[in-house]
Amino acid sequence: MTLFSRQVMEQFGELDYEVYNYILKNSEKIPYMTIREVAKEAHVSTTTITRFCRKTMCSGFSEFKVRFKLEKEKKGSVKKRFDLSSITDFFERVNSDAFQKQLDTIAGVIAGKRQIIFIGTGNSGIMAEYASRYFCNIGIFSTGINNPMFPINLEFPEESIIIVLSVEGETNIIIENSSILKESSSTLVSITNSRNSTLARISDYNISYYIQKERKEMEEMKVDITSQIPAVYIVEALARLTMEKKQG
What pLDDT, in 10s, does the model give residues 105-137? Predict the structure, then answer.
């Protein structure tokens, strides 16, 4: 049982909540304070604090401080771990018949094309190169481009499929080049986080994975650290399904 479980807090009176609120506001220094120091700053008696500690199943303030510090450290370490909830939700969604049918349909389109090109920038650019390598590894030749300014030679536009990876789906240069490629009669597929993005809307086919977007402050700029795990799954699933259709 945690120090401040629901069962414990149901026993708290008005003075107990005074102590409780003081402890939460001063959590960093509580482990290093004496019971008299807490009583003085919280404007309660030492007896009130002792009763408070016993309600949290501690013998006294000394035991409370030790347990409070341990729980705080434990919660801190949990917060630093990778949050798997959105990834777990994604894998639950991909097991649906609708999602698998969508993958199967797009794999069928890919299998009928002579030229496969993956495009992306930043982390998605790395994914574009990975996707191309993965397709090649299972015997399906493809090209990966992580520089949207790189000139693309489409010898057979109508027999080419462009697969664009983008978390936001709002990068201007990606949208502009994707529009040009689509106008050349190539088939455009996008893999994005949301179906409501501009890139998704202009694509012939879109696969959206909907996970929590994450950004981190780095030297006065925000860096996208959204997980690429869904994109990896989608790329590998498409590759395997395409291989099956080419062989069958």
Answer: 999 999 999 999 999 999 999 999 999 999 999
Annotate 145-177 with b (16+ C-beta within 10 A) or e (fewer): bbebeeebeeeeeeebbbbbbbbbbebeebbeb
Measured between alpha carbons, how far is 238 from 117 in angstroms, rounded to an integer? Answer: 14
Q: State residue 208 phi and psi, 5-degree precision.
A: -110, 140
Tens of pLDDT, residues 211-235:
877 777 666 667 777 889 999 999 9
Characterize the bridge pairing of strands 187-192 and 160-166: parallel
Task: Specify the pTM.
Answer: 0.65
Tokens (6 digits) for 237: 């699933």
Q: How far apart are CA 90 and CA 114, in angstroms?
A: 31
Is 43 exposed, middle or buried, given 0-12, 13-18 or 19+ CB atoms closer than 10 A? exposed
